[in-house]
Amino acid sequence: MRLVIARCSVDYTGRLNAHLPLATRLLVHKGDGSLLVHSDGGSYKPLNWMSPPCSLTLEQPDEVDVEDGVIERWRVTHAKTGDALLVRIHEIVHDTAHDLGVDPGLIKDGVEADLQRLLAEQVSVVGENLTLVRREYPTAIGPVDLLLRNDDGRGTVAIEVKRRGDIDGVEQLTRYLELLNRDPLLAPVTGVYAAQEIKPQARVLATDRGIRCLTLDYDEMKGVQSGAPRLF
Predict the structure, then answer these.
(1) Which end of the chain is more exposed for a tag (fewer CB within 10 A), N or C?
(2) What is the residue range of 17's domain?
(3) pLDDT in tens, 56-67
């Protein structure tokens, strides 16, 4: 990655034209070929940019540019659209390059796998007199996230776990319930749709189909106070 702080102007040509007048800016040229133009503001959002696949070409300034004080021209061209970003550099204040290596990617806290694991360890969150049969219980159309047994002999409970519950998740659980209820060793099988947040439309559909909705507090399940105000 190359980081250049320079006094420059920037012109974008393509589906639309845009111009950034002469000013001191940060130019970020990444290993994937992309170029981002930042000012000292606007948080993470660049003033202009070119996304890959693209290539950067160094050009010699023409006579007009030389008269205006341009010392370098960068042209970044998109490989598919032909859109171009032309950077006219008048002064380089700082220029450095770094090899960042391979990035392992973002590891999210509170993903569905974490919620499923915590719920399997704390089945009392779902209700009393329940025992975990197994996680990822197999069916012909895919695994059910959690299958619990009612200790009082009232069948089993199938649970679909999501971070954000929408209608698709309700439909998915409905299909699992139809299959599981055909097994006399499991029936009757009731459904629980568990998520950190359940959309109103999904809640209405689940209720209409006899599926119970359960809102999960991830911080509380981890043993961390969420800080959210509570009535009780």
Answers:
(1) C
(2) 2-97
(3) 999 999 999 999
